[in-house]
Write a structure and sequence with these properties.
304 residues, alpha/beta, Rossmann fold, 2 domains, 5-stranded parallel β-sheet, 11 helices, 16% strand, globular
Length: 304
């Protein structure tokens, strides 16, 4: 049985697959769509991260494919309907990079509130702008979480450690399901009107597209801080740009964008906007966990 790894995967995951005597592993990263379409027909399984797009066209050529595994959380780079039509199983590893994304969320928050990136750049230019770059604390502030899945819950736990009041909106979660987390479940309007900080931890699906746009920003507190380490497209970037330039949004920090890389985005021109290049899952530990879990799932499915 042949397994194709089409995006960079932790070496531990590759070794996990190689331990199986009846599995042959090929690592072929950086393929374009046409090359992938030609290559996929020889494989029983493919493991991807976010770069490879497993489209309907690709799946149409996958005559022997039994499983598509995503070493990560989202599945928006895989055509799920096309896979279902051909009876191909699709799996992901939602727990593998949870801690990594939760920690980056706080890195983005702290960088925003304490002007860390601007201060670093300023000092490296031989400037000492201590008065200009003062910030504000997280302690005592209201922290609104949109989406209380695995990552949202880990973020909530860490926010309590900073002494924040945590509120969350998630229509699919009931309070009795999260007895170990000190969080108040509220409406979306409550999140928007009362939060000093708002962070998103939701998938990119039609129902969540631009869940934060002009109307939602208008309801927010003046001087709110907005964080998106979830998925590009859940936030209307034009609306955020307008909010930042008007100072309705004090500062924002995004790890994900509608178009990646976002090199033409007007957001990158703003001093009160911080960006990272989709680094949420990019930790050594997170990639090992996600890769090994994906490999285990592939082996299990190929073995029936």
């Amino acid at each position: 049985m042949k397994v194709l790894v089409s995006d960079p995967l932790a070496e531990e995951a590759i070794e996990r697959l190689k331990k199986e005597s009846d599995i042959e592993v090929d690592v072929k990263t950086g393929m374009d769509k046409e090359e992938l379409k030609k290559t996929i027909k020889d494989y029983a399984a493919i493991i991807v991260r976010s770069a490879t797009k497993v489209t309907r066209e690709v799946i149409g050529n996958a005559d022997n494919l039994k499983v598509i595994a995503r070493a990560g959380v989202g599945l928006d780079n895989i055509d799920l309907d096309a896979a279902k039509e051909k009876g191909i199983k699709v799996v992901n590893t939602p727990g593998g990079t949870t801690i990594s994304v939760a920690e980056l969320t706080f890195g983005l928050m702290l960088a925003s509130t304490r002007n860390i990136t601007r201060a670093d750049a300023s000092l490296k230019e031989k400037k000492w702008e201590k008065k200009k770059l003062g910030g504000f604390e997280l302690y005592g502030k209201t922290f609104g979480i949109i989406g209380l899945g695995r990552i949202g819950r880990e973020v909530a736990k860490r926010a309590k450690g900073f002494g924040m009041k945590v509120v969350a909106y998630d229509p699919y979660v009931k309070k009795e399901e999260i007895p170990d987390i000190d969080v108040e479940l509220v409406s979306m309007d409550d999140i928007l009107k009362n939060s000093d900080f708002i962070t998103l931890h939701i998938p990119a699906i039609p129902q969540t597209r631009h869940i934060i746009s002009e109307a939602e920003i208008a309801k927010m507190k003046d001087g709110v801080v907005l964080i998106n380490a979830a998925r590009g497209g859940v936030v209307d970037e034009e609306a955020v740009y307008n909010g930042l330039t008007s100072k309705k949004i004090k500062c924002a920090a995004f790890d994900v964008f509608e178009v990646e890389p976002p090199l033409e985005s007007k957001l990158l021109e703003l001093d009160n906007f911080i960006a990272t290049p989709h680094l949420g899952a990019s930790t050594v530990e997170g990639q090992i966990r996600a890769g090994v879990e994906a490999a285990d799932k592939v082996v299990g499915i190929l073995r029936g």
